[in-house]
């Protein structure tokens, strides 16, 4: 049985039928998808979900697609990993990693939003799709559009990481490098979507796109055994993800799939681009745009579209926001890899470093069940680790050479146990 | 109910109890794990498998681990993708991609073998593990060992791709760069494993390690709806994978989970390292070692341990082997990305180019159900595509600039449809 959905203004509540629209024509606030929750009570059950595929499409009846929609590419259903070694290091006890560094098909949580957005691009009859992106979204749109037969234009800031550039071009997408930061790129994209009548996933398809993020929240709850965590730490670029995980949890409570609970939401940003965390710390919902200057380029959005909503969600939940330096970001990338075997991109370094600081500052209690959301893969931002590992001298393929190598390493104390050498001092990583 | 397993010599059949051993002390042939197939008939059923996790551990009762073993890291259960656009281009109809480019946790099929090998390293009480590797295995061992508390030594040829080096070091593994090719590295590793009493996954744990590869075969059969394909195309480095997929299919037939069928196995190598395909083409099982010289470094094993068994498996099945040039490998990487949205490393370029040639040469019939095994991720070998994409000039964030950009692109014909510009001429990609 299908669950009906439509668009509604997030602020004034005005209703819209399903169309490629992103904001209310009366109050200019963003539109959001709402569902017939009475119908959902019948179709969106623990049993129906458990019988679904091992992908985000197990939650299809609360995603804005027709009942019979068949996604051409699997996405989502990523591991929720226990993180006892990282936990020990940062003074936590019940820490989990939601690992979208290995999200199918292009290794970031953006695959989730793109899956839903492109489904709607098909429904609305677009033949060309696109996006403005800081990298991960570019990869996801380029790869998924191929399997759906779209022409693709991807607009990015000119200084994007090489791996993210290649991982867009290789799929045959037309890449447009724009002089300026993401906010310039995004503004141009809005104009293009309107002028050319193209489906831009994060412009005129944004309400549908954003619904894909909910699946992170559904998965966390299901993977915890249908219960909500005490805290969630979420990286913030445009600010949408944190609001959508919150929406997911609310829907699960409303449908009786999990017990109600006050989940606290914590936002993570890089200090070099921290408009939302700055607002939260000031006790405000008003976002002062910033000019980004951080290695965490996937979070480098100085004027975040959902910033006010993210700030409000955090404060309403009793959470907090923090931001960390580029040095801390790099150390945290290494820390997460060395403790839990998860290699994340710079955004994941932000989330990990912020999580550590929240424990260090007592904002999260050690006994709480906390989920730290890792959203992208380290192979996409290898340049962030440039110079961090020395090129060990080579040895000849002889036992004597190897024995000498081992002896030198033991003297220098470089064995795996000691490689985990970060120390947390006053909430900052020092190595 | 547990399924008992033990080691047995692949040639003389001598039985061994479970120990870190790789070859028969009588005839020096490799050892292999065999199972109590009567017990397996009761435990390894379609129903028990369907009720298992969405990982390779759904097949746990036919893997060499205790019944109650709990893997600390999810691995496997990768998508089997329909590939209609690639199929059309190469003259196929029923082509599937087994996509281990997105295998958890480190994006290659080596995660499967390492999962099983490290489980046994724990059982045998090793505190230090290692491997000789052409890259993917290094990544998998380094990442998975962290979550199991092992010390790790990884030996690689000194000239490995930068992303594979970084993706080993980041987990805190001790990386040992050896002057020479893989065969030198591997010989040294055998000596080290013995001298230091360490668990080397592809040396003294090799029989257990190799069993992990079977899960590729199990998954293909299950994902095809519990039937076997007509053909499988498999890349060959050491030659183990192709023999283990065959073993998997045989076990499934023996247990009555699929109907018996003559599956033909096709091996894929780079011409610059083609000892197995050379033997197959000569109608021989005798492998003449080669000195590798190819960009497909993950396949650059000049003296493949399982080469004779791979050659025999291919010929017995009625299959064939082919090898392709470095130029074809790069074109095929692009072709696969542009048609199916899958970005693979050089080894996947080998498999894709060989698959195309097999159709072009009439060795595979268009109507056959064929599975092409993609085993690693393109983000690990980005250097292979160096210079393949021009850095488009940047535009200013203005509509006029964008309109000019689009107009120029349309004149040059560079839109997505035409980007797929490879043509297959006589079984070789030309671009």
Automatic annotation (TrEMBL), chains A, B:
Keywords: Lyase, Pyridoxal phosphate
Keyword flag Lyase: yes
Domain Tryptophan synthase beta chain-like PALP: 75-376
EC number annotated for this UniProt entry: 4.2.3.1
Gene Ontology MF annotations: L-serine ammonia-lyase activity; threonine deaminase activity; threonine synthase activity
Protein family per UniProt: Belongs to the threonine synthase family.
Protein name: Threonine synthase
């Amino acid at each position: 049985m299908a669950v009906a959905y439509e668009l509604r203004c997030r602020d004034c509540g005005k209703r819209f039928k399903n169309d490629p629209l992103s904001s209310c024509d009366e109050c200019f606030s963003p539109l959001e998808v709402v569902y017939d929750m009475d119908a959902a009570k019948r179709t969106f059950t623990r049993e129906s979900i458990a019988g679904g595929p091992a992908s985000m499409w197990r939650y299809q009846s609360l995603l804005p697609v027709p009942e019979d929609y068949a996604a051409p590419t699997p996405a989502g259903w990523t591991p929720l990993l226990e993180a006892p070694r990282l936990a020990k290091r940062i003074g936590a006890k019940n820490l989990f990693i939601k690992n979208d560094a290995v999200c199918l098909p292009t290794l970031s949580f953006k695959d989730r939003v793109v899956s839903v957005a492109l489904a709607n691009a098909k429904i609305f009859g677009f033949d060309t799709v696109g996006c403005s992106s800081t990298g991960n979204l570019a990869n996801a749109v380029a790869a998924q559009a191929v399997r759906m037969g779209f022409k693709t234009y991807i607009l990015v800031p000119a200084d994007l990481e090489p791996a993210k550039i290649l991982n867009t071009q290789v799929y045959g997408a037309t890449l447009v490098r724009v002089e300026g930061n993401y906010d310039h790129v995004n503004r141009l994209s809005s104009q293009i979507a309107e002028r050319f009548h193209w489906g831009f996933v994060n412009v005129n398809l944004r309400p549908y796109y954003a619904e894909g993020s909910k699946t992170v929240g559904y998965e966390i709850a299901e993977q915890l055994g249908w219960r909500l965590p005490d805290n969630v730490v979420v990286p913030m670029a445009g600010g949408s993800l944190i609001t959508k995980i919150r929406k997911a949890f609310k829907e699960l409570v409303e449908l009786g799939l999990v017990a109600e609970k006050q989940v606290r939401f914590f936002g993570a940003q890089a200090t070099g681009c921290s408009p939302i965390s700055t607002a939260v710390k000031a006790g405000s919902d008003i976002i002062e745009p910033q000019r980004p200057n951080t290695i965490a380029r996937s979070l480098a959005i100085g004027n975040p579209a959902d910033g006010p909503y993210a700030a409000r969600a955090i404060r309403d939940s009793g959470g907090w926001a923090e931001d960390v330096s580029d040095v801390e970001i790099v150390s945290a990338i290494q820390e997460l890899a060395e403790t839990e075997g998860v290699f994340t991109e710079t955004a994941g370094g932000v989330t990990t470093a912020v999580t550590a600081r929240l424990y260090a500052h007592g904002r999260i209690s050690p006994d709480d069940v906390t989920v730290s959301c890792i959203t992208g893969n380290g192979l996409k931002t290898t340049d962030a680790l440039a110079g961090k590992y020395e090129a060990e001298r080579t040895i000849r393929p002889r036992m004597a050479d190897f024995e000498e190598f081992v002896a030198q390493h033991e003297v220098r104390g470089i064995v795996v146990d000691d490689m985990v050498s970060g120390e947390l001092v006053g909430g900052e990583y020092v190595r």
